[in-house]
Amino acid sequence: MSKGFALTRRQLMAGTAAVAATASFSKAQAQASGLIGPDLTGKSVLITGSSSGFGRLGAEHYARLGAKVFATMRNLPRPEADELRELAERENLDIHVLEIDVLSDDLVERGVNEALVLADGKIDVLINNAGIGITGPIEAQDMIATKLAFDTNVFGAQRMVRAVLPSMRAAGSGQIFAISSQLGRLIVPSAGHYSATKFALEALTEQLAYELVPHNIDVTIIQPGGYPTKVWVNRNRYTRNLRERLTDELKAGYPQLVAAMGEEDGSSRRTDSMDIPRAIAEIMVMPAGKRPLRKAVHPTFRPQEAVNAACDKAQLAFLGNSGYGPWVKAAHNKI
Hints:
Blueprint: H1 9-21, H2 27-32, E1 44-47, H3 53-64, E2 68-73, H4 79-91, E3 95-99, H5 105-118, E4 125-128, H6 143-171, E5 174-179, H7 194-211, E6 217-224, H8 231-245, H9 248-253, H10 255-259, H11 275-284, E7 294-297, H12 304-319, H13 325-331
Helix pairs in contact: 3-11, 5-6, 6-7, 7-13
């Protein structure tokens, strides 16, 4: 068996028995359940926003592939934390549920320090996954909504990298993933500050990729398309609260856009949310220095790839022959 797959001899024997008992158990089903995939044994992975969506799916997937996972979420205790702990115990997965609210300097520092103790001082992979959306016209975004969006999607990622990087630099290795979006490159009217925050996250993370080249720390920006996660439910809650705060004058200025605020639930989307954890796991086991700076993830619709290619070309033309050239070329895998 190739070392690239996390199937032990015991799992193979169990799998053989399972196939004999259930001939319909397909490779696709095995992949979906996390039984087949890259071997993440020995990796310690810290994820923010693990109560639902890509964070929760990722916590389960990486642990099933052998990783020690620190699944962090805010507002503990909560049912989602209990469910994940019960799953870990039932399946004998190495998952530790810790409290981190990316809005809080203290909780970020405390949670990361707790993870470092449990990981013997080294976190191999940070996944900046926590994020929110609040929709509506730009003029309708009051400062409550604006500050919350930037504090979560941008400043939260900054808090996390500042907390995790000292140990990665000391180890001389590591990986950081940022969960961006198609809307980190493209614009949709009435998406509020979502694109503004994701554009900022992309810029922050790309600059980080250049600066971490000398430390042998790889950085990858994941750009999902539309997936049916709980993000829609949370987004609608924030957006409806904002809509209630709007003045009649603002509502009258954008009647069509305001009427749609907080009304999309994402239920029409048929994509498989496991696409994102699978893509991340595959990148985790790529050779250091060969991992992509950006990865667009969607089965059919990836319009941001054209923007990515144009920006890569422009960035290399801008700095490729400068003193920063080696860093920029390394981050873009052009060396």
